[in-house]
């Protein structure tokens, strides 16, 4: 059975699968969609373990200009459309998270706040192949060849498959932010 994210939307509980997220975003940045799915899978289990979380209670800061990640997080939480998502590579630039392939100096760094609870997540170092980062940077400087573009598309699919095959907790370093007294 395909994993599912359960999220409250007012009085309804929505069941969202990875394939639903792909239908929303497409396959161009499928690795980012997979990363968003696994990130939310972990965040939901930690920030709202007893029940499906409510969409309207999320605020998210992400340190990467990743269209697949942004769309995945938006589809499930609606944080972007509610002006509760901040995409800020500058804030993430000093964090101990892996470099992102966004061409903006971003990092795979995420702050997720749910109601009054917050966790900081960063993708574990060494999970993404160096070849992916190298080829992705070439898309930003305009030096990517046709053969490299084909290879990059394949790598994105492989990365998505890799991420989806792993337990979410094995993919991210997590830091709980203490709640004010």
What does this structure look like?
The protein is an alpha+beta fold. It has six helices and seven strands; from the N terminus they run E-E-H-H-E-H-E-H-E-E-H-H-E. The strands form two sheets. The chain has a five-stranded mixed β-sheet with strand order 4-3-5-6-7, with helices on one face. It has a two-stranded antiparallel ribbon with strand order 1-2. Strand 3 (58-62), helix 3 and strand 4 form a beta-alpha-beta unit. The chain is globular and about 50 Å long.
Notable traits:
181 residues, alpha+beta, 60s Ribosomal Protein L30, Chain: A, five-stranded mixed β-sheet, two-stranded antiparallel ribbon, 40% helix, globular
Quaternary:
single chain
**Helix fraction by DSSP (H/I, runs of at least 4):** 40-55%
Number of helices: 6
CATH fold assignment: 60s Ribosomal Protein L30, Chain: A
Mean pLDDT: 95
Largest sheet: 5 strands, mixed
Distance between the termini: 42 Å
N-to-C SSE string, H for helix and E for strand: EEHHEHEHEEHHE
Number of separate domains: 1
Class of secondary structure makeup: alpha+beta
Strand content: 15-25%
What Rg, in angstroms, do the CA atoms define?
16 Å
* Low-confidence segments: none
- Principal-axes geometry comes out as globular
Strand arrangement in the largest pleated sheet: 4-3-5-6-7
**CATH class identity:** Alpha Beta
| Number of DSSP-assigned strands | 7
Quickly give the CATH architecture: 2-Layer Sandwich
